[in-house]
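Q: Here's a chain of 170 amino acids. Please give me its 3D structure as tokens.
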Amino acid sequence: MNRSLMISVATALSLVACTENSPALRAGPFAPLPPPSSFPMSVLGGTIIVSVQGADSVVQLLDLHGDLFRLVGNQTAALASVNGGDVIAYGTWDANPGFVVQEFKVVGMLGRPALDGVLEVLEEGFALRLADGSIRLIPGLSGDCADYVGERLWIIGWDEGSDVVFGRIA
């Protein structure tokens, strides 16, 4: 390409990039960063693995690709209570390699699909209030679970016609 043609192309590109409506100008290096609370959350899915190292337990997530991620933050105690369960975790990446979990949802336990919600009592029986606010009536739950009303539980077997099994997420 000859020199005058290169200068013409460079000039044209500069003019396009510097117009008011140019996305390059609006999102250029001097565009302000959004506040931290508006950064998008990342999502991880996999199986929770809890190991003990000294006096501390380490909570990790093993994804379908075999990658292991250390989970940190104030949700790790609750995640440790679902050791071996399948979860979807929402959070942000930490500079100290770890995934800071803001919230999570249990989607499987003991190799079976699971519901995750807060146990309530309705006229029809026990129900689970899911994170989206919907209510799922759980047939097969006995009075044994009355002590757990108001607590967050995982439940399996509600849709299989088998025994309903539940556990506390704490």
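Q: Can you summarize the key feature?
A: The chain has three domains: 3-32, 38-108, 112-168.
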